[in-house]
Design goal:
The structure is a single chain. With 151 residues, the chain is α/β, with parallel strands linked by helices. It has one domain: 3-Layer(aba) Sandwich (Rossmann fold), CATH 3.40.50.620. The chain is 36% helix and 21% strand. The chain has five helices and five strands. It has helices spanning 16-25, 49-59, 75-81, 94-110, 130-138; strands at residues 4-9, 31-37, 66-71, 86-91, 115-120. A five-stranded parallel beta sheet has the order 3-2-1-4-5, with helices on both faces. The chain is globular and about 45 Å long. The structure holds adenosine-5'-diphosphate (ADP). Residues 9-11, 15, 17-18, 21, 89-90, 92, 96, 121, 125, 128-130 line the site of adenosine-5'-diphosphate.
Length: 151
């Protein structure tokens, strides 16, 4: 059976740190679905969701086993519907760990067949976050080195 992983997130915007997790995930999974959630708390996006979808699709156009979708429901439920048995997430620091630990427990409770898999960030991306990119870009700073596409 194909090993399908869901890589869920806000991706506002999708960064080179996210790209790194996806590419390394290809060593573990046959197929990766990048799933952009419409989180109610973060619904006020910096980059419109349709634009983000097409930028990410373009980034991975050479990879037929990487797809991009949006969703507005429980991640565990969206994974079930897409036959994804794995949730791929990245860990940068203890703050990420605290958050991922609690969300991972909830996801296990919601879908016991869904296994969360965490990849430790590559050191060059350890300080890279979507929020930092938004701040720099908003004031006209150059973020091209931090993104796998041109914004
Ligand atoms: P969320 O709103 O779900 O936290 P994000 O888009 O911020 O969504 O992040 C999606 C996933 O990517 C999370 O697991 C996050 O920890 C991980 N991630 C974000 N930035 C990096 C990075 N620079 N290196 C590794 N993992 C990262």
């Amino acid at each position: 059976m194909k090993r399908v992983a869901l890589f869920p997130g806000s991706f506002d915007p999708f960064t080179k740190g996210h790209e790194d997790i996806v590419l390394r995930g290809l060593g573990l999974f046959d197929e990766i679905i990048i799933a952009i959630g419409h989180n109610t708390e973060k619904s006020n996006r910096y980059i419109k969701i349709d634009k983000m979808v097409s930028l990410i699709r373009d980034t991975f156009k050479a990879f037929p086993n990487i797809s991009v979708q949006t969703y507005a429901e429980l991640t565990a439920e969206f994974a079930r519907k897409n036959n994804a048995k794995f949730l791929l997430r990245g860990l940068r620091n203890t703050t990420d760990f605290e958050y991922e630990n609690s969300i991972g427990q909830v996801n296990r409770y919601l879908n016991a067949e869904l296994e969360s898999v965490f990849l430790i960030t590559s050191p060059q991306f350890a300080s890279l976050s979507s929020s930092i990119i938004r701040e720099v870009h908003r004031y006209g700073g150059d973020v091209s080195m931090l993104l796998p596409y041109k914004l």
